[in-house]
Amino acid sequence: MPQQTQLAPLLTIQQAGQIAESYVSRNVFQSAMAGLSENTIKSLKTGADIWCRFLAVIGVDVGGYDCTSDPAAWANVNYALIDTFVQWMLNQGYAINTINRRLSSVRWFCTLATKAGFIPADEMVKIGGLKMIRYGQGLEIDKKRQASRVGKKKSTSTKLSAYHVAKLKAMPGNDQRSIRDRLLMCLCLDHAMRASELVCLEVEDFDIVKGTVHFWRPKIKKFHTHKLTKSTLAAVGDYLALDGSPQSGRLFREIHRGGSFVGDGMTTAAIDGIIRAHGRSLGVDGLSAHDLRHNAASRAASGGTNLRSLMGLGGWNSAGTAERYLDELTIHNDGVVGID
Known about the structure:
mainly alpha
């Protein structure tokens, strides 16, 4: 019987572990991003781009600096540098919400760079201590700083009167576009849906018998179920009863001048374009899906909706966002007696 030759191991367990550790460290960003949505990744990369812009402004050579895939690019980053980054954004006129998002992005990269061994753990503790700018703080900061707002987003939402809301929800016309747009308005104004949620809606999400819609909210990565308001239930019934209207798949479709439904969905830009056009017809410039969401939340808060239900309406994970709408209506001396 031939004698078997035992081969010497190429690597020790220790060496294999070191190689694996090196691989995991180098690819820590890619691994973490694999489980994120496209919008989240886009936001993180935008934050990294602004971070690089800041570094270039203060004299750092960012040529070949790849901070979105190479964790070593974050070596030597510390609390003081990130705090200076925040102050720079304030001076440049970035909106408070934008500053908070960019700070969150930088902390995300730093957390993983720490895991990969490029930032000391004690320094990461300090970095983690950098707080987001609270809503009230942001208002005071905006009063004092001179720099104009950076970006396309409006600093305040466009206000709508009860007249505007009624007109948008009951717009005249029985043609395909009017009926489609009426449903779109009801979903925004009664269910506070984002444009990103509207484009994801499918016919199968609606249960007409139960009067509900079960839909995906990409921003918070959750399914929510809403009971349809009377206006929305009537609007979705009218829409699905149209000749040629979608009976499965994406709910909202483009409509040709001849009235035929085309394509397999709509973009968020198309949704905002429709809303903007209807706003102009009522004398309201720059109307957006976000403005309609804001109006829905404000109306719900003024009607006495509790905090938990308000969060469910708007699809907010943070109670702080919903609380703003309640705080706008608060009579802060309600219950005080013995003064008048």
